[in-house]
Amino acid sequence: MNVIRQIRFLWKPLLFVASLIPAALVVGDTFQITGTLGANPIEEIQDRFGNWGLRFILITLSVTPLRQMSGWNWLIRFRRMLGLFAFFYVLMHFLTWLFLDQELLLSAIGEDIFERPFITLGFTAFLILIAMAATSTNGMRRRMGKRWQKLHYGIYAAGILGVWHYWWQVKLDASDPAIYAALLTALLGYRLWRRKRKVAAQQERNQHGHRRLEAP
Amino acid sequence: MLIRRPADIRPSEITSKEIYLSRRKFMQSAVSAGGTVLAGTAAGAIIPEERRAELTGIEKSEFSTDETVNSYTDITTYNNYYEFGIDKGDPFRNSGDFEARPWSITVSGHADKTGTFNLEDIVKPHVLEERIYRLRCVEAWSMVVPWVGIPLADVIRQFAPQSAAKYVVFRTLNDRERMPGQRSRVLRWPYIEGLRIDEAANPLAILAVGLYGEVLPNQNGAPIRLVVPWKYGFKSIKGIVSIDFAETKPRTSWELAAPHEYGFYANVNPEVDHPRWSQARERRIGSTPAGGLQSIFSAKKQATIKFNGYGEQVAHLYEGLDLRRNF
């Protein structure tokens, strides 16, 4: 079995199943098979889905740095699935809020989205992820051309809004959101740093290109 | 979060358990001797030292609600008690080793009888009452809890406060060896709460020493805690070691932590939202014993009632006070 087939028929299915474990645990805990959801099950479900949404955004964002640092180019083959799992968990987080927390009470939903800044932030991040998930097929990527890459830079915004949304809703202790913020800063900072280096190298080449042609 | 190592050597490392315990017993009897000033009409409320021991001689109260009471598990595994950690399950997990006895309370300030008193001597002159109260957390969830306690007004009267005593200020034990959550600086320790003296004298306010007819569990504030059911839960301070009769309004822990979000009064009020979330509704929590989908779909939200439904007893305390400013 060559590497591409191995990824496609072994590693991707395995990653798919592993990524579903947090959702399976919510179901298992609901029926008290794997554990319990505690005294406030709705909040627990909502928190878990939200947390996993953020984690998958961070995991997705770490694919490119890992690939560039290690040279394991095959990592890119997992990125779309990881991104779609980020969308899946954020969607579940949203649906829990809509059906279980707000009980579809339209007045409360409207008030929450437009008057509670932390929900406005989370909802905006969700809209961005919807657009990305909807255009994640190969066909859409081809059709959209350059605009596709632009739209999919939206993950940076979704990550920032998502962490901000989390930070803003904690009662007092921001140590957990601070961990997410630190990881996100590192992942985005790496990209900025690389971009800067690239621009600098480009300028250097433009100035001395005729003398030093070898790559840095 | 920084994980700090305790700076000091633990007493348990240098003192044997027997000596440690006998020293505590000695301290207890020494305090007892000083506390005789409290001896009055001994109604005889006794709090046994054993955990989960049954309390006797409990009287019913007209203030109790007949709403469905939350399960013992709900009440003892879902707690906000940052002295034992920040997650709701932490107090249950981390308070197992906490020894709530012997216990004494220091009374200070504008009162005739001040000093350090044994818990037993403070409680003894009173009759234990069961008070089944709604508990509304500032986080927009609520429970119904069968407390056992003594009226705060009677306890205050014991110490004969003077006219300069305008506020009653409570403090929680400050001991990070015994309360591991205090190693984190999430709040300033010790936890401080306070009431206006007329609020404290309201018949609804109690000092709870029991739950479900048994000795109060550690995670719920053993051995003695405040319960003021018309206010958000954080006002009901746990593990009380000091009562101060003060002339000026204290700066309470949550006020110090976030003054624009948590006020001194903290009365339950659906008309005044938390800056970041609505207080109009609350989720009456409670897992069903069977679990399953029912546990999710039965936990409906309900409208929050002003003063948590205790307006009849307490609304007069706040007449002429702008509750939007004094939140």
Question: Can you tag this structure with a few keywords?
Answer:
heterodimer, A: 216 residues, mainly alpha, B: 327 residues, alpha+beta, Sulfite Oxidase, Chain A, domain 2, 7-stranded mixed sheet, 5-stranded mixed sheet, 10 helices, globular
Structure description:
The complex is a heterodimer of chains A (216) and B (327). With 216 residues, chain A is mainly α. Chain A has one domain (3-197). Chain A is 80% helix and 0% strand. Chain A is built from 9 helices and no strands. Chain A has helices at residues 3-30, 41-70, 79-101, 106-115, 117-134, 138-144, 146-152, 154-169, 175-208. The longest helix of chain A is centred in the C-terminal third of the chain and has 34 residues, at 175-208. Chain A is globular and about 65 Å long. Chain B is of the alpha+beta class and 327 residues long. Chain B has one domain: Sulfite Oxidase, Chain A, domain 2. Helices cover 20% and strands 20% of the residues of chain B. Chain B is built from 10 helices and 12 strands. Chain B has helices spanning 11-14, 17-34, 72-77, 90-94, 119-123, 152-158, 197-200, 253-257, 292-297, 311-314; strands at residues 104-109, 115-118, 129-136, 141-151, 167-172, 192-196, 206-211, 214-215, 225-227, 240-246, 281-284, 301-303. In chain B, the strands form 2 sheets. In chain B, strands 3, 4, 7, 8, 9, 11 and 12 form a 7-stranded mixed beta sheet that branches. In chain B, strands 2-1-10-5-6 form a 5-stranded mixed beta sheet. In chain B, a hairpin with a 5-residue loop joins strand 1 and strand 2 (115-118). The radius of gyration of chain B is 20 Å and the shape is globular. At the A-B interface, helix 2 and helix 4 of A face helix 3 and helix 9 of B.
